Amino acid sequence: MINYYPRIYPIDQVGAEERVSRLFSRSIKKESKIRALKLALSMIDLTTLEGKDSLGKVRQLCYKAAHLHDQFSNLPQVAAVCVYPNMVDVAKKTLEGSSIKIAAVATAFPSGMTTLEAKLNEVKSVVDAGVDEVDMVMSRGRFLQGDYSYVFDEVAKVKNTCGQAHLKVILETGELVTLDNVRKASDLAMDAGADFIKTSTGKVKPAATPPVVLVMLEAIRDFYKRTGKIVGMKPAGGISTAKLAIQYLVMVRETLGKEWLTPDRFRFGASSLANDILMQIVKQSTGVYQSINYFSID
Amino acid sequence: MSKSKTLKFDTGGAYSPAPESTDHIQLKDRYGLFIDGNFTPSKAGKYFDTINPANEEKISEVPEANTKDVDSAVQAARQAYEKVWSKMKPSERGKYIFRIARLIQERAREFAVIESLDGGKPIRESRDVDIPLAAAHFFYYAGWADKLDFAFPGCRTKSLGVAGQIIPWNFPLLMAAWKIAPALAAGNTVVLKPAETTPLTALKLAEVIREADVPPGVVNIITGGGETGKMLVKHPDVNKVAFTGSTEVGKFIMKTLAGSGKRYTLELGGKAANIIFEDAAINQAVEGIVDAIFFNQGHVCCAGSRLYVQESVAKEVISKLKDRMNTLVIGDPLDKNTDIGAINSRMQLEKICEYVDIGKKEGGSVYQPSCTLPEKGFWYAPTLFADVSQSHRIVQEEIFGPVLAIQTFRTVDEVISKANNTPYGLSGGVWTDKGSKLFKVTKEIRAGVIWANTFNKFDPSSPFGGYKESGMGREGGIDGLHSYVELV
Amino acid sequence: MDKRLKIRKTYKLFIDGKFPRTESGRYYKWTDAKKTIDMSICRGSRKDFRNAVVAARKAFKDWSNRNAYNRSQILYRIGEMLEGCCDQFIGELVLQGLTKSAAEKEITQTIDRLLYYAGWADKYQQVFSRVNPVSLPYFNFTVPEATGVVAVCAPEESSLLGFVSVFAPVIAGGNTCVVLASQSRPLCSVSCAEILQNSDVPAGVVNILTGFRSELLEHFSSHMDINAIIYCGENLQEIKMVEENASLNVKRAIVYNDEDWSKNNSQGPYYILKTQEMKTTWHPVGM
């Protein structure tokens, strides 16, 4: 195990929240809005991560992923579906032939409270099952204890086990509480090899919040400037409105520039967001406010 | 070694137009002077145009008040003071001021649009900062009207009489609020002259004041240029002069009033130092730098126009600052996404261009993000000057535009002495995560308002004003009342 | 001739922004001086009081953290709402025994007093805070902070002006409260509850109970989660009990006996100061 010393990078919460407010006051209308809505749609990781998930549920979710709203033409597809390890096979089968990626959570999602060995076995099993992306959880307890080397080592080993699959590291920012911690954890995850850093499991409140997303995007930017390595970002949980999704896209654009506005570098972990975006797209096109009755719920 | 990677912003054309609608506002083609509760034409019959600096189009005509007009206004204020306002129960005076505050809140959007049209500032700023603060200012001071006995330990208060007030063009409605509210709360009556290029929101305020049923003559608003201002200052029946504007004119006012026994307060220019230490929260500090000098196109007396960044973090700060400048949207003030609006006037634009030329000749290196500026109207891109020092004119003199001069420093003592090395003393900024250092620096900077880990924050309860040539007297809070009363 | 039957008002308690009846189901009869009207007023129980304290405690964090300008505007709004309902209150004051002109004077004075405290909410901090010139290299400052949840026994006789005079400074200072209305003149207090609900006052900031002082005073003064109690009245035995019970958790006991609320100086920032705690902070000044 190498010794990892996290860098201290103070974040002023009041200042960060003010920046968020400024960014969120952007008014995105007309062509910008339509472009943003379609872009947001293409960045969704359609997710189902419940103890009661069944083969039927996952099949239906995957079908929805590939057929968001067939009544409307030229809609982009979502980026990926995200499921538990024991659902990877059925997801793969249902989405055979589509370009939608398969992501699986691993490492004892959502708590991460098990041995390193068990976590690496789980990662290996989903990699063998052929996932494109692995979403791991960081060990928050160890992090808050100050065992940064342990946490670093864990992420590095998981990355190693991922092979060709991309690794997203979930920081569970709701448990880290402070923006200073969020920054520290972001830097640690990236130093250890993360391809994406992700805010939350969605099982803890608060999940993704605007100041947290800002701090993580700035961490990615600083890391890029320092090392030249590109890392992506995924806010997850609590993003159910198109309006918020667009505000996050503004945040990405003005923090990292337009090259980060692609599903290769930015994802939304969400489930009901897709329908809200679809309703907005149809409203923009017809001029009429929509009702959920006209969109499939799966 | 790390390769320097660039990020692509060019926010300039990123967003579709998001214009604020203007069809609900009401403007007259020609205004009168607001004297004694009515709008009356100027006795001289002279008018001047007020234009929209974003497209140079005429909006309205306003009168150029002459000596007779100024005299009528002062007389109206005097009569209202002697017969009505000074005799009124203080809590009733307070209620009138509360009404003004509530009416501004009700008409907020209309005021914001007119402010942006007339002065060039982005609608987002007038909507989110100027107008709410103006209403808050009236609301805060309304409550003081019947509580003056508690403001000054051991002393009761007496109002002064008629106040002559002259305000600038950078925060037209807000400056009107800063002047009128405390004056009225303290029991005085007012004659106010708004700036030549931005009279409209003051005239709208006059309409609100009339609608609030404020007794005629308590507030009088007369438009005009520098000459009208001089007449007001010199008028023998004005008891107190309040001026916000350039140091040059401030000194002229002091000379004019010498020996007259009149009281005066002055809020003049500044060249604030904004100091970033290596242990600051750097990302928030960069945002603070942008807020300090590019907010309101740099037309802010307390702007952080001199940046001092500790050498060990200078490269990081400047690189992030340049990236951030590339996300600033310069354009139509009425577009909700505009960050930097129009320069207020041709005259001001020429002044800024002149200084930037001086800076270049003096050997400073310039950085400006590439952006296409509209053809008509007055525009200037946000500008950085690096490789400059205390001896450069652009570091010493107030430019009043979106131009930042950057220097590095090594020790605390060095930066404190450089920050204080100026005849100005209005404001300053300090960025560090270390509390004790923060308080040490704020203690030693000789300026009236110090922002620690923030910049350009205002509140009606917070006193604002300068040391040295940045003026004397404070506006806001209890100290703001001080200038409008006599302690007995 | 057909006379239209009027709908009689039900006078209920005001807890957590809602209007429940007393959980005890009890009532007491109230009739006006001329005996034209008979009403059933809720006879509040100790459980109602307990629930009200829970609501007030829950509301405290948000209310005390709101900025002063916001509290100031809300108090002003209460004044706006009250001004609009003058006639209703005049009617009730007359029923409670005042002449019409005395009632008019009382309502206008009440509105002006509310405005007075609205104007203090964002200023008392400046008047009562200090920076202290300690002789060590520290920045040392003292600020007033809200004490918490305040129990209030409102005046028996001055049921509108006195009622408002007592709770307005409490909430202007960032506290939340549970108020026991006048037993003999309960109508205006309950109507005040309606005004508060219309005024953007968050639920739980002011809770109003009706009932017998003799039953409830014991609980008002002994509750361990109350930070201060305000007692209005002259009964020496009650005062003694309140002060003794206050000692259980060292709550601050504030007694207004023999106060004429209609006087001009029955208002002021010192009424706010009574439910404030002074906090002093030290921080080094140095490198």
Task: Write a concise keyword list for the protein shown above.
heterotrimer; B: 488 residues; alpha/beta; Aldehyde Dehydrogenase, Chain A, domain 1; Aldehyde Dehydrogenase, Chain A, domain 2; 15 helices; globular; C: 287 residues; 10 strands
Q: Describe the strand arrangement of the main beta sheet of chain A, using strand numbers.
A: 7-6-5-4-3-2-1-8
The biggest beta sheet of chain A is recorded as: 8 strands, parallel
Annotation field: number of helices of chain C = 10
Structural class of chain A: alpha/beta
Strands of chain C, count: 10
Name the biggest interface: A-B, 31 and 32 residues
Uncertain segments of chain C are none
Report what the structure shows.
- Chain A is α/β, with parallel strands linked by helices and 298 residues long.
- Chain A has helices at 13-24, 30-42, 55-66, 88-94, 116-128, 140-145, 148-162, 173-176, 179-191, 210-227, 242-256, 273-286; strands spanning 44-47, 80-83, 101-106, 133-137, 166-170, 196-198, 232-234, 268-270.
- An eight-stranded parallel β-sheet of chain A has the order 7-6-5-4-3-2-1-8.
- The relative contact order of chain A is 0.15.
- The model of chain A has no long low-confidence stretch (mean pLDDT 95).
- With 488 residues, chain B is of the alpha/beta class.
- Chain B has two domains: 33-268 and 470-487, Aldehyde Dehydrogenase, Chain A, domain 1 (3-Layer(aba) Sandwich); 273-460, 3-Layer(aba) Sandwich (Aldehyde Dehydrogenase, Chain A, domain 2).
- Helices cover 38% and strands 17% of the residues of chain B.
- Chain B has 15 helices and 19 strands.
- In chain B, helix 6 (200-211) links the parallel strand 7 and strand 8.
- The model of chain B has no long low-confidence stretch (mean pLDDT 96).
- Chain C has 287 residues and is of the alpha/beta class.
- Chain C has a single domain, classed as 3-Layer(aba) Sandwich (Aldehyde Dehydrogenase, Chain A, domain 1), CATH 3.40.605.
- In chain C, the strands form three sheets. Chain C has a five-stranded parallel β-sheet with strand order 7-6-5-8-9, with helices on both faces. In chain C, strands 3-4-10 form a three-stranded antiparallel β-sheet.
- In chain C, strand 6 (176-180), helix 7 (187-198) and strand 7 form a beta-alpha-beta unit.
- In chain C, helix 2 (68-84) runs antiparallel to helix 4 (100-120), helix 4 (100-120) runs parallel beside helix 6 and helix 8 (213-222) runs parallel beside helix 9.
- Chain C starts with 26 loop residues before the first strand and ends with a strand.
- Chains A and B meet through helix 1, helix 2, helix 10 and helix 11 of A and helix 9 of B.
